[in-house]
Predict the structure.
Amino acid sequence: MPLSSIIRSRCLIAVLGLLIFSPALAQTRAVPGSHEQIQLSFAPVVRQVSPAVVNVYGSRTEKQRNMPMNEFFRRFFGEDGPGIPRERVQRSLGSGVVVDGSGLVVTNNHVIDGMTEVKVALADRREYEAEIILRDPRSDLAVLRVKDAKDLHVLSFGDAEGLEVGDIVLAIGNPFGVGQTVTQGIVSALARTQVGVSDYQFFIQTDAAINPGNSGGALINMRGELVGINTAIFSRSGGSIGIGFAIPSSMVQAVVQTARNGGKIVRRPWFGAKLQVVTQEVADAMGLDRPIGALVVQVSDNGPAEKAGMKHGDIIAQVDGNAIDDIEAFGYRFALKGIEGEAKLTVLRGKERLIKTIKLSPAPELPARDVVLLEGKSPLAGATAVNLSPAVAEEMDMDTAQEGVILFDVAANTMASRVGFQRGDIIVGLNGEPVKSSRELERAVSKNARVWEIVVNRGGRVFSTVLRN
């Protein structure tokens, strides 16, 4: 028998074996059974989806302090002189996906972070200005609205929860600014939680080549649906080595829906408890065969967790039937529940297995944040201070039980940034007086002091610094 006939016969036997022993698998996923099947192309899927994947360009202009000039330059070249720029333009490059016919484009927040002007270029080379309508740093997502665009192709959302390791996926974006590029790979892993690029870590890992510029681009399944937004790579060289990460479409949909409803901030449910990783020691004490779930170590007074009967030492094993392997998985699953209705948690308490019902609601903003931009000649000039509340703490991924006045933002090239103050610093005291509200801090920094003694809580570590004008 010719060799080609032998190969075809063996392929047929392999396929028949799959049909006999794995009928469910054969209906949905199968190894290529012939030479013709190996020659199949992804081109139809690419033609369908690529018009909805766009390039995103961001820029901002920074004013620069002029260098001193001598009289020669002043006389012959005017005030600015030659080669002494007064402005510098910062630029960013990424990708995006059109997800709504009204012109909504989703991308990564880090692509447009700090940018004041954003443009979107479609696959057919049409270019439009875009407005940033929602930024969500916690998920590293942002939503833009393209102005005056017509005949937009829209990419529909797919079910990221239905993905399996080994599924074929396509990544589409603009790597290194070379133009729209399609790469193919498989789902390498699901629910990756140790990537460190956002607060909600539950990434799809793929070996489809992703490079700088792909951020904000599309991860597509074989039905031509958006299952993820490409966000990060693991690389020692700066280029792809086959380890890329995408935000699942379920999180993307939640952010896009907020933008559709006119929201400027993504509101997520408040749990009202502090969680830690379950160690092997805790797992052994609880009679578990391995460390799984999220361990409750502190319950906020009058919060949803306390009202549901949660206690110190409880281990959260499931959220509405979805298994929880670690605290990042809990944060992701709980964040997707929204701020209305209820969620049922499967809780391990000693040898008991309990069901606790949590009422879903946003974190309260009590006290009111009372935003204050600190000015004057103090070391805190250029920082924005707010009163710390559970809502503010949730936004900043902090312990919601903390109180005080927190620096919500520290503008670049200001006194506060040059001194070393950071977003998230809690100002405990100023010149020997406790700071209890943002207005108290505003009044305190307005004084013309020669010496400033500032007590700061940074990440739970309290220290004092003395600065002189």
